[in-house]
Design goal:
The structure is a single chain. The protein has a 5-stranded antiparallel β-sheet, with helices on one face. The longest helix is centred in the first third of the chain and has 24 residues. The protein is α+β, with helices and mostly antiparallel strands.
Length: 137
């Protein structure tokens, strides 16, 4: 349980569902991409309040990369608009300067079954991107 668990019920459910799955994904990711430093993260953000949006994911920091190439690829699951109709999104995205999205899933109204169905593909995409070490061209 983390500091995020005191909040919105959807955030608590995501925390309980996602963080263990993401931690379990680290060993296969490390085996497929040993040059990558992978870690699980969770944080809140927002413009009106610091607890308006929540983000969960796996960050993969790459080893030596050219100066103009992204140093990170991540699986990011976000829940936004908790003060209205919650919106879930999940994507595998490269860090700056590319910001390239490798795979994305939009889910409305906290559709957890659809998120769970999308996770295996998102995790496989993250593993492939991390192994490749660069955005797909």
């Amino acid at each position: 349980m983390t500091v995020l668990s005191h909040t919105h019920p959807l955030v608590r459910q995501l925390e309980n569902d996602l963080l263990p799955r993401f931690r379990a994904a680290l060993p296969p990711l490390a085996a497929a991409a040993p040059q990558v430093l992978a870690s699980v993260f969770a944080f809140s953000s927002g413009t009106v309040s610091a607890f308006q949006d929540y983000h969960f994911g796996i960050s993969c920091l790459l080893g030596e990369v050219p100066e103009d190439a992204p140093e990170e690829v991540a699986l990011l699951v976000s829940v936004t608009r908790l003060d209205a109709s919650a919106r879930l999104s999940a994507k595998v995205v490269w860090g700056q300067p590319s910001g390239l999205v490798e795979m994305q899933t939009e889910l409305l109204d906290g559709d957890l079954p659809a998120l769970h169905a999308a996770l295996p593909g998102l995790l496989a995409c993250l593993q492939e991107a991390a192994s490749r070490g660069a955005p797909a061209i």
